[in-house]
Each structure stands twice: as structure tokens, then as C-alpha cells.
Specification:
158 residues, mainly alpha, 8 helices, 61% helix
């Protein structure tokens, strides 16, 4: 599923300044021709729909009463999906103001909805890019994240 999401993000979303209007049937056909499985395509498109819904909703549903000095405590299931390196990277992005509480929670929500048994730091970076790209008012954060992903040398960022 991550492969499909990355393919769609790179092909249709990331480098396209115009409003994205793609016929879903044609998109599914193209993805099938590219070698993706129908069930994975359906799951990826559902994931993207849920991302769009998150962008439309008020962020307050995530943040009941979170102060600027609050700390995110991960559930056991979240900790299983997001290893120490991933959680540290999220904290790093919060500290340099690429992420705020709302975008962090959107990212965690989308990660937990991925149908995958393995999740890496590189996967996390792609999910962060997708969420920030789709979150209104986060253009600067997206640009910073894009710099971190595309213009850094291999190795630790924090």
C-alpha cells in the first residue's frame, strides 16, 4: 500500500500545482497496469479519502486540551508500529516547528491506518509529506520537510 501511496504522491500530487481532478476509474486502471493489486489500490484510495476528510474536519477533535509543554505518550499499538527512531523523528520535527500537535496527530492517525506489518523511518517521512501537503496553512512546514527528505545526506538528522 505504501508503494501505491508514494507512486500517487509523486505522480499526481507533489509536482502538480493545479487542482487534482482524476477520474477514479482511470486511475485504478493505470495502477493496475503499473502492476499494483486491486485490493491494495482500493485500500490506498480509501486511505487518501480519509486523509482528505481529516483536512476538512476541525483539528480540535484531536486536541482536547493540549498545552505547548505537553508530551505525546504513545499507546502500545502505536509504539509497535512506530519504533524509537520514528518517534524520535516526530519529536525532532515538533521541536523545530515542522509539526504541531494537530499535524502530528493526523500523521499518527494515517500511519495507524496503513495496512502494513513493517513501517520504516523512510515510510514515516513520506506519510509526513503527504499529510503536510494536504494540510492547509502548512506550506512552510511542507517545504522544510521536503528539504529534509530530498536534500539531506543519508544518516541521522537528530
Amino acid at each position: 500500500m505504501m508503494d501505491i501511496l508514494m507512486y500517487l504522491f509523486e505522480t499526481y500530487i507533489q509536482h502538480n500545482d493545479v487542482e487534482l481532478t482524476v477520474d477514479q476509474d482511470k486511475l485504478e486502471e493505470e495502477l493496475l497496469r503499473a502492476g499494483f493489486y486491486q485490493q491494495d489500490i482500493y485500500k490506498a484510495l480509501q486511505w487518501l479519502e480519509q486523509l482528505a476528510i481529516l483536512q476538512e474536519e476541525d483539528g480540535g477533535s484531536y486536541l482536547l486540551s493540549s498545552g505547548s509543554a505537553s508530551m505525546r505518550v504513545y499507546t502500545t499499538i502505536e509504539s509497535e508500529r512506530l519504533d524509537v527512531q520514528c518517534r524520535g523523528f516526530i519529536l525532532f520535527l515538533e521541536q523545530i516547528n515542522v509539526l504541531n500537535c494537530e499535524t502530528r496527530e493526523m500523521i499518527i492517525d494515517r500511519i495507524m491506518e496503513l495496512d502494513t506489518s513493517e513501517f520504516s523511518l523512510d515510510d514515516l517521512k513520506w506519510v509526513i509529506l503527504m499529510v503536510l501537503f494536504n494540510a492547509p496553512g502548512n506550506e512552510n512546514a511542507y517545504n522544510q520537510m521536503e528539504e529534509l527528505v530530498y536534500n539531506t545526506e543519508q544518516g541521522m538528522l537528530h
